[in-house]
Backbone:
């Protein structure tokens, strides 16, 4: 009879370690990277590249909504030029339920990327220093394609780390 409480304690410890490990894996499974030129000219395109990398050992299905992977369709970037935040002026999208086409599959160790034109959604001024970062939220990440069609309350949101790009915008 004394063996049963000991086995129960070991089981609880193992389960908590498993859950902690699963959370850590998903928490650190993605990272983003932004790339830009160092200099741009006012009234010319300001293109930046957003790359999303799978650091996990398993493939991940990532909802592209609210990321640069779908283009600029909301306040997903923080843009600060010479100390002032530049407001997003692009389209705001109202959405229904995501479909499989709204997800991208990223294999382990692989990445996906998209170039976006920042100046199409932000009124960028001449500035000595502009800083841009992704707000860092992926709204749904799943390991199995069959999990894509879950209810919204089952979405697995994820805050992801990444870098900030810095550039200047010069007069013509």
Residues:
């Amino acid at each position: 009879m004394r063996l049963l409480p000991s086995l129960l304690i070991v089981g609880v410890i193992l389960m908590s370690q498993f859950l902690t490990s699963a959370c850590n894996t998903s928490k650190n499974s993605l990272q983003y990277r932004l790339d830009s030129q160092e200099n741009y000219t006012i009234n010319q395109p300001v293109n930046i590249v957003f790359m999303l990398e799978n650091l996990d050992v398993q493939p991940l299905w990532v909802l592209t909504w609210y990321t640069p992977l779908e283009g600029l369709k909301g306040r997903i970037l923080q843009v600060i030029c010479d100390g002032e935040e530049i407001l997003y002026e692009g389209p705001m999208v109202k959405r229904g339920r995501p479909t499989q086409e709204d997800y991208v599959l990223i294999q382990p160790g692989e990445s996906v990327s998209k170039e976006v034109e920042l100046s199409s959604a932000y009124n960028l001024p001449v500035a000595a220093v502009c800083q841009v970062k992704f707000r860092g939220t992926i709204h749904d990440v799943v390991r199995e394609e069959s999990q894509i069609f879950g209810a919204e309350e089952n979405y697995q949101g994820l805050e992801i780390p990444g870098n900030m790009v810095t550039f200047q915008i010069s007069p013509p």
About this structure: DSSP finds one helix and 13 strands in the chain. The two ends are 84 Å apart (CA to CA). The helical segments are 3-27.
